[in-house]
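wait is this the right file?? whatever heres the structure
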């Protein structure tokens, strides 16, 4: 499984591609950051993020895209930029028919470090160890993108089994004939 992880942001949008399957050593295929100037017009920044993500999709041909789910932050301006960059990543993948998964920051931290409250240094250290890298990817946005991809590789099989079980249960429920209860409909 090849996954493009996207840590969305307008100034720095982390991107990282990881390949592998759960239970086996993983391989980093590429890592980087799509940057936009903070003083540029919003529209131009979003186009630059789109072009950067499109280049990563063209070059690495991922089977899945994992994007950090936008969560509530105190700074509304920051959360808006993150949400806008996230939407661009989702749009780019969806336009190509690539499945997109959203993972919360605490879910990613828990998957990679064992604690949903891990700090950026702990995430970077574990990404370095899990991918057998010489040093943590810089900036932290790049390491976070790799962590998203790792999280998806490890969690996707369980999520897929759960979705299949729900679909099977729903389909079986729809095929069962409705029977009346023997005590219903009879006069007392």
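ok assuming it is, sequence goes like this
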């Amino acid at each position: 499984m090849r996954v493009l992880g996207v840590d969305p942001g307008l100034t720095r949008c982390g991107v990282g591609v990881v390949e592998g399957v759960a239970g086996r050593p993983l391989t980093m295929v590429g890592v980087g950051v799509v940057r936009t100037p903070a003083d540029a017009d919003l529209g131009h920044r979003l186009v630059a993020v789109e072009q950067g993500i499109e280049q990563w999709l063209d070059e690495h041909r991922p089977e899945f895209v994992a994007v950090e789910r936008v969560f509530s932050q105190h700074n509304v301006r920051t959360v808006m930029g993150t949400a806008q960059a996230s939407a661009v990543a989702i749009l780019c993948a969806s336009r190509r028919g690539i499945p997109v998964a959203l993972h919360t920051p605490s879910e990613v931290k828990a998957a990679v470090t064992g604690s949903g409250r891990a700090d950026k240094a702990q995430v970077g250290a574990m990404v370095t160890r899990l991918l057998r890298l010489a040093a943590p990817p810089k900036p932290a946005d790049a390491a976070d993108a790799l962590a998203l991809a790792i999280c998806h590789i490890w969690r996707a099989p369980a999520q897929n089994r759960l979705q299949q079980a729900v679909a099977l249960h729903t389909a079986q429920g729809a095929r069962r004939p409705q029977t009346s209860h023997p005590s219903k409909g009879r006069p007392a």
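The two ends are 63 Å apart (CA to CA). so i think its the right one actually
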